[in-house]
């Protein structure tokens, strides 16, 4: 049987390596500033997925020397109370990062909440001014999932200059920022989406293929340029043989022989996202204290 | 001889048509708000090109019922004095738009100046938060040149959905915002640049080709997909037969038989930029007074 293991980009191992470096950075920050870097996480309502995400974030933070503050609200919380809480956290000097776990209940405007976070503490990178700076190439806080994908790509390929990068999906939190990051790495970038005619015409040019569309096993070998690197951002829950299973946007078994390497789902991009959140928190603690910060996440 | 006139996208006529609509909008705004829309233009130093640009902007504004305030400084002006002036204009309710003519002298940070402008008065669309909103698809103030290009494309082609748009050049004020606009119009978008390998491989797929690289007559017919629409943003000064001449990035004579239509240089994109600046000023006067504004610039 074909041995695919050498082609798998191990996101779990890469995230461990990155977290190890973040831990060192956190400890240096603590020495500088006489306090640990600190993230405040706000959880609204009883969404079980959100609860698990928040729990993992806090656990990871505590493991690597980042202080965490968890603030929980019932789903009935008023928008104004949430805004006041965020204002308080903005004003607290010892809080470096603020994360509001999304989604929020319908009566609360996510846009207003994101806008209310001090951009220098916006460790999710979702504030419009942080997106604007990303767009302009002045990196401040970068959204975690695309940042994690870029980290994997640079570890896998070294310099990306001159490569053709094709992104499938144009969401604000993955597809678009991914393109901005790859453009700055000197890739020729193509964004495709649901209105693209003849998708494979583009994906067949991809030295780097990134899929973030949320369609289980949508990308097949007929989409793949031989020897490409594939990053699968999809996390799709399907039923298989009456069991629940998580699969990516890419039909892993179908493409594996053709690719140079590929991220699995689970165990690929997912673990990187949380590592990048920790990275952003420590980065914020450096920048807010005017300590020089070296972007080790871009190391090849 | 081949008759090319039917293929020319007449930017002068399109800008006149748009300015005519802006004039009507300005007059409605004046009725609503008991004052004309108003733009303040700041000119620093004695750059003769800048002086001509500013003069044209003010003349155009006055012609269509927009009040203008011109503020001139010597090139020795201190950054802080400029910042105080902008703060004053930010605070004046009767000023709808603030434009600082670029470039500025080296001792003044353009970034700091742009950041100091109230984003709701940023009629150039250069503030990071306006770029961020463009990126996110929440249109506020949009940069004038790409906006003008989009206007021409929609007038020429109607719906752009599903078309392949290839942008040559990745500047912050043309290439990147152009891509964001075309992505929202449901184009498949490709950004190419100096590090792109085999440029024509991409441009040959372009139903819409936009060039903004500043290289005279760089784009030849071997780059062109038959029947495409070409928008030439380049304004390059060259010597031809010992005379000064302005030419675009596209070799007009070389490509004309192959294209569906093309903007000439001069007389294509150039006149649209100033019309879009007037559009933005009137739009700002509507939005700042909570008057409902219909984005007629996107009409097909």
Which helices and strands appear, and what pairs or packs with what?
Two copies of one chain form a homodimer.
Chain A: H1 11-33, E1 38-44, H2 48-63, E2 67-73, H3 79-91, E3 97-100, H4 110-116, H5 128-136, H6 144-157, E4 164-168, H7 175-184, E5 188-192, H8 199-203, E6 208-211, E7 229-232, E8 236-240, E9 243-247, H9 252-255, E10 261-262, H10 269-288
Parallel strand pairs in A: 1-2, 1-3, 4-5, 4-6, 6-7, 7-10
Antiparallel strand pairs in A: 8-9
Give a description of the structure:
Chain A has helices at 11-33, 48-63, 79-91, 110-116, 128-136, 144-157, 175-184, 199-203, 252-255, 269-288, and strands spanning 38-44, 67-73, 97-100, 164-168, 188-192, 208-211, 229-232, 236-240, 243-247, 261-262. Helix content of chain A is 40%, strand content 16%. The model of chain A has no long low-confidence stretch (mean pLDDT 96). Chain A is built from ten helices and ten strands. In chain A, the strands form three sheets. The first copy, chain A, has a five-stranded parallel sheet with strand order 5-4-6-7-10. Chain A has a three-stranded parallel sheet with strand order 2-1-3, with helices on both faces. Chain A has 300 residues and is of the alpha/beta class. The first copy, chain A, folds into two domains: 34-118, Rossmann fold (3-Layer(aba) Sandwich), CATH 3.40.50; 144-270, Rossmann fold, CATH 3.40.50.720. The first copy, chain A, is globular, with a radius of gyration of 19 Å. The two termini of chain A are 32 Å apart. Strand 5 of chain A pairs antiparallel with strand 5 (188-192) of chain B, so a sheet runs across the interface.
């Amino acid at each position: 049987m074909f041995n695919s293991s050498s082609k798998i980009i191990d996101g779990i191992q890469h995230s461990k390596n990155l977290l190890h470096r973040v831990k060192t950075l956190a400890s240096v920050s603590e020495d500088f500033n006489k306090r640990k870097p600190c993230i405040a996480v706000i959880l609204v309502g009883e969404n079980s997925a959100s609860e698990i995400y928040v729990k993992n974030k806090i656990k990871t933070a505590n493991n690597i020397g980042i202080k965490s503050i968890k603030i929980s609200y019932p789903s009935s919380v008023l928008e104004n109370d949430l805004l006041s809480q965020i204002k308080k956290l903005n004003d607290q000097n010892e809080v470096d990062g603020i994360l509001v776990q999304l989604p929020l209940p319908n009566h609360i405007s996510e846009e207003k909440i994101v806008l209310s976070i001090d951009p220098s503490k916006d460790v999710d990178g979702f504030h419009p001014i942080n997106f604007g700076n990303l767009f302009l190439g002045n990196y401040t806080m970068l959204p975690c999932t695309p940042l994690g994908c870029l980290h994997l790509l640079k570890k896998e390929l070294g310099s990306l200059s001159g490569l053709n990068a094709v992104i499938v999906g144009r969401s604000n939190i993955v597809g678009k920022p991914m393109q901005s990051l790859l453009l700055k790495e000197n890739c020729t970038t193509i964004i495709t989406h649901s209105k693209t005619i003849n998708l494979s015409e583009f994906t067949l040019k991809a030295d780097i293929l990134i899929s973030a569309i949320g369609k289980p096993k949508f990308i097949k070998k007929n989409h793949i340029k031989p020897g490409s690197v594939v990053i699968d951002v999809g996390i799709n829950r399907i039923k298989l043989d009456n069991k629940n299973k998580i699969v990516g946007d890419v039909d892993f078994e179908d493409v594996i022989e053709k690719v140079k390497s590929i991220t699995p789902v689970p165990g690929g991009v997912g673990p990187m996202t949380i590592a990048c959140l920790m990275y952003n928190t420590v980065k914020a603690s450096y920048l807010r204290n005017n300590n020089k910060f070296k972007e080790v996440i871009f190391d090849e």
